[in-house]
Specification:
Structural class: mainly alpha
Mean pLDDT: 85
Strand order of the largest sheet: 1-2-3
Radius of gyration: 23 Å
Number of strands: 3
Helix content: 40-55%
Order of helices and strands: HEEEHHHH
Low-confidence stretches: none
Largest sheet: 3 strands, antiparallel
Shape: elongated
C-alpha cells in the first residue's frame, strides 16, 4: 500500500526544471556600436552602462525579453492603427535625406 502523502499532486507537470541562471542570465553581450549591444539574435539594446546613472536597470528573465521582442510588430501595428495617419519607413526617410544631400552638393 502506498502512502497518499508521498504521491505527486495531480495536474500538469513542468515542461522543464526551473534553473535561475538559465532564466535570468542573458547570453554574453556583443558590442555592435559605441552605444549599442546585442544579446539574443535581432535584440539590440542601448548599452546599460550608459543608462544606469539615470534609469534603474531591471533584470528580465530571458523568456520575457524574447516575448517582448517577438511581440514588437504586433505592438507597432496596434499603435499605427490607433494613432498614425501615415506610417513612414526608415528606408523612405533615408532615401529622402540622401536625395536632399545629393541635390545640395
Amino acid at each position: 500500500m502506498t502512502d497518499e502523502s508521498t504521491k505527486a499532486p495531480h495536474g500538469p507537470r513542468a515542461a522543464a526544471a526551473y534553473r535561475f541562471a538559465e532564466q535570468m542570465t542573458p547570453p554574453p553581450a556583443a558590442r555592435v556600436s559605441e552605444v549599442a549591444q546585442t544579446t539574443f539574435e535581432h535584440v539590440y539594446e542601448v548599452d546599460p552602462r550608459l543608462m544606469e546613472r539615470h534609469v534603474l536597470q531591471q533584470t528580465f528573465p530571458n523568456w520575457d525579453t524574447l516575448r517582448i521582442m517577438n511581440a514588437r510588430h504586433d505592438h507597432l501595428d496596434w499603435m499605427h492603427r490607433h494613432f498614425a495617419d501615415t506610417v513612414v519607413t526608415g528606408s523612405a526617410l533615408l532615401d529622402e535625406v540622401e536625395g536632399l544631400h545629393r541635390t545640395t552638393e
